[in-house]
Amino acid sequence: PEELAVIGKVGFLCNNSQIADGVMFGNPTDGALLALSRKLKIHVDEVTRLEEIPFTHEQKWMGVRCTHRATVRADTAMVTMVTMETTHHQGPGSSVLKGPEGIYYVKGATENVLRICSHVLIKGSLEYLTESSKQAILDTV
C-alpha cells in the first residue's frame, strides 16, 4: 500500500543509522525503520538533505528538510515528490523555521508530530488537518 511506502520513505530519509553486512549501527528504532525501508525496497534518488532538526526529549520528534526531484519506488507503490516552498512551525515557545525550498520529513511521538503538521495522507490524497481530525487521530493511537 502507498501509505506503507511513505512510512518507509520517511524512515529512510529521517534516519542517521546504517546497516552494513547485516549489522546495524546507531539508534535501534532508526535501525528498524531503515530495515523496513530496505524490505520495502525503497530507493530515493537525487535527494539533498539541507537541514536536520535533531530529536530532543522536550519536542519528542526529529526531522529533516530535503530538496529533490525524486521518484520513490517500492514493490507496491510509486510516489513522485517535487521540490516545493514550505514553512515549518514548531510548537509553542519554539522558533519558526522557514525553508526557501524543501519538504520536511518528521518522525516522533504522535501528539507532538501532530502539533506541527498541517496535512495528512489518507488513501493517497493529501488532506488538511483540522483540530478535530488531529483529535480523531489521537483517539485511535
Present the secondary structure layout.
Blueprint: H1 2-13, E1 18-20, E2 23-25, H2 28-39, E3 43-44, E4 47-53, E5 61-68, E6 70-73, E7 78-81, E8 86-89, E9 96-99, E10 103-108, H3 110-116, E11 119-122, E12 125-128, H4 131-140
Antiparallel strand pairs: 1-2, 3-6, 4-5, 5-10, 6-7, 8-9, 11-12
Helix pairs in contact: 1-2
Written description of the protein model:
- By secondary structure, this protein is of the alpha+beta class.
- The protein has helices at residues 2-13, 28-39, 110-116, 131-140; strands at 18-20, 23-25, 43-44, 47-53, 61-68, 70-73, 78-81, 86-89, 96-99, 103-108, 119-122, 125-128.
- A three-stranded antiparallel sheet has the order 3-6-7, with helices on one face.
- A hairpin with a 2-residue loop joins strand 1 (18-20) and strand 2.
- It starts with a helix and ends with a helix.
- The model is unreliable at 75-98 (pLDDT under 50).
Summarize the biggest pleated sheet.
3 strands, antiparallel
Radius of gyration: 15 Å
- Oligomeric state of the chains in view: single chain
Mean pLDDT: 76
* Termini gap: 20 Å
Tell me the series of helices and strands, N- to C-terminal: HEEHEEEEEEEEHEEH
| Helix count, DSSP H or I runs of 4 or more residues | 4
Unreliable runs, pLDDT <50, ≥5 residues? 75-98
The number of distinct β-strands equals 12
Percentage of β-strand residues: 35-45%
Q: Categorize the overall geometry.
A: globular
